[in-house]
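Re: the 189-residue chain
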Amino acid sequence: MCADCPVELQVKRPLMPIQLSPEQVGLEMLCLCGQLDLLIRAQTQQFQDQLESGCSPEESDTFQLQGSDILDQMLQCLEHLPKPMPQLEDYLDLIGLSEMFPRVELVISSFRGIKVFSEIKKEIEANFKQLKQSLVAEEGSRHEPHLSAQYISWILEMTQNITLMVLSLPEEVTEELDPALTFMAQFLS
C-alpha cells in the first residue's frame, strides 16, 4: 500500500464499459431531462416560497450539485454517439427534447457558464486583498492612492469577461438585466 498514492473513485460510472446504441442514448437522455426538469421545478418552487416569505431567493447547493451531476451524465451519454459528438444543446434540439423540456434547455445553457463564473470568482478573491491593499494611503503621505495600470487592466478584463458571459445567457434569463446589459455592451465594441 502506498500512503502517498492518490486514488480516484468513480462511484457514478459502471465498472465495465458499456456501449449504448443511439436509441438507448436517446432514452437515457429522456430520463435525465425528466430528472433535471423535476429538480428545476423544485428549485423554482423554493424560489417562490422564499419570495412569498419576504426573503431574497437563493439557489440551493443541492440544486447545483445534483444539476451538475445530471449534466455530467448527459455529457457521458453523448460520448456513445458516433463521432463527431454533437453539443448537448444541439443534440436535445435534434431529437426534440428541448421542446419537451424547455426549462431544461434554459438551465443547460446557464449551467455552461457556471464553471466560468466560479473561475472568475476565484480570481477576484485571489486578487482582491492585494488590490485593496494598493488603495490604502500610506501614513503621512500627501498623495491619494491610485490603482496601478496592472490592476486597472485586470478590472477591465474581468468586467468584460463577466459581461460577455451574461450576454451569452438566454434572453429569458437576462430579461430584467436588459438596461444594464445595454449600457455595458457599448463598452465592449
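The chain has one domain: 22-136+144-185.
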